[in-house]
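User: My advisor asked me to double-check a structure prediction for DUF2093 domain-containing protein before group meeting. I don't want to rely on an old file, so could you generate it fresh from this sequence?
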Amino acid sequence: MLMSNARPARLHYLANSFRVLSPGDHVPCAVSGERIPLDELRYWSVEHQQAYLDAQRAAQVLAAG
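Assistant: Sure, here is a fresh prediction for DUF2093 domain-containing protein from the sequence you gave:
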């Protein structure tokens, strides 16, 4: 996969993976706005199509509904 420095990627989140729609090197956390490098991305919501920095932030959003 080609990497673009300091540019956010646009992803489509799937159940066990994601598809890159626009290349980049990171995505923003939906809760904190912090950058998540694509190689460190582990938590996302297929339903909400959002990425989360860690399990705590993912649980926070998913618990809220």
